Amino acid sequence: MCYRQLQCIEFACGHKEPFTESKVDCNLRECRYSSVHVRPCIACSTTCLQMLGRAQPTVAQRKESLCRHCQQA
Ligand SMILES: [Zn+2]
Ligand SMILES: [Zn+2]
Ligand SMILES: [Zn+2]
């Protein structure tokens, strides 16, 4: 199934903040969210996956500073 991938910045305090997200395609025709899913799909709700997977955070950048919340504290 497809899922969203969150690109996060990791701060020195260990907190992560997402700054962009993208969809990772599973390339299954039986998946409603896939780019190869055929539309219109007649019995989509019975034949196809209707769910997006959990968002997967990945650390794309690291910062030596504290995050916004920790700077305020
Ligand atoms: Zn999918
Ligand atoms: Zn379908
Ligand atoms: Zn923090």
Describe the structure concisely for a colleague.
The protein has 73 residues and is mainly beta.
Distinct small molecules: zinc ion
On the 0-100 scale, what is the average pLDDT?
95
Largest sheet: 3 strands, mixed
**Whole-number count of domains:** 1
Strand content: 35-45%
Features of the shown structure:
mainly beta; about 70 residues; binds zinc ion; rod-shaped
Description:
The structure is a single chain. This protein has 73 residues and is mainly beta. It has one domain (3-62). Helix content is 12%, strand content 37%. It has helices spanning 44-47, 68-72; strands at residues 3-10, 16-24, 53-62. It has a three-stranded mixed β-sheet with strand order 2-1-3, with no helix packed on it. It binds zinc ion (ZN) (3 copies). The site of one zinc ion has 7 residues, from helix 2.
